[in-house]
Amino acid sequence: MSYKEDFITFMVRSGVLTFGDFTTKSGRKTPYFINTGNYKTGAQAARLGDYYAACMQEYLSDGVTALFGPAYKGIPLVVTAAASLYRNYNRDLPYCFNRKEAKDHGEGGSMVGYKPQDGDVLAIVEDVVTAGTAVRESIALFKQVADVKISDLFVSVDRMERGTGERSALDELREEHGIAVHPIVTIYEIIETLHQKPVDGKVYIDDAMRQRMEDYLRQYGAKG
After folding, report:
1. Which of 31, 52, 55, 95 is the most exposed place for a label (fewest CB within 10 A)?
2. Given a cut of 70, is residue 170 above it in pLDDT?
């Protein structure tokens, strides 16, 4: 089993990937939902870092000097990913994350951990990007911190849905900012992996659910 297939099973068992009837923030009626806030144990955090690290080992651009996790969900992700990258692949990259409000005492500033320097090349570690807001906020933040290049974005799942236009938020980030986007898995990989294949004795994507998911993606999926 590849790390991608293993990750999909892990999300189901963790209650992060669920199926049914849901409404997204944008008001779309969706038959599946991904809630990374349901990770809650040390074992889950450790394994989650392993999956991110496996993706990084495969796709991380040459020259990356640090990892960055946007507050708040990106904070535990960047920490566990950096730890797993060192433990599993002997790659020791510094990490940092931002405060929502800049500290005005002590050492001050908006960054915690590694302090990015001019010329650094950063990879962002996020959960699921919907509109790309957190990433755009990170780009704006670094303009005030240091002259850095953001080369990569690692996310757990690419829902492959369009934003306000025809393209997905991840495609927009690729095209507008030159960021290479690397999901651990895509929604189509989830469909192919789980269709008629039970997890702990239960089939989560039968023919009917697959049809619902494909209908949803035909309606809301990104073009091109």
Report:
1. 31
2. yes
User: Comparing C-alpha atoms, which of 93, 97, 100, 81 is closest to residue 121?
Assistant: 93
Strands (E), the chain: 17-23, 29-34, 66-69, 95-103, 109-113, 121-125, 149-158, 180-186
> Is 182 an active-site residue?
no
Q: How many CB atoms lie within 10 A of CB 79?
A: 18
pLDDT reported for residue 1: 67
- Which of these is catalytic: 40, 105, 143, 223? 105
Is position 105 annotated as part of the catalytic site?
yes
pLDDT mean over 105-112: 65
Question: Tokens standing for 133?
Answer: 């807001």
Q: 62 near 123, Cβ under 8 Å? A: no
Question: What is the tally of helices (H) and strands (E) in the chain?
Answer: 7, 8
Residues whose CB is less than 8 angstroms from the CB of residue 159 and which lie 6 or more positions away in sequence, other chains included? 34, 128, 130, 168, 187
- The confidence score (pLDDT) of residue 106 equals 45
Cα–Cα distance, 187 to 109 (Å, whole number): 38
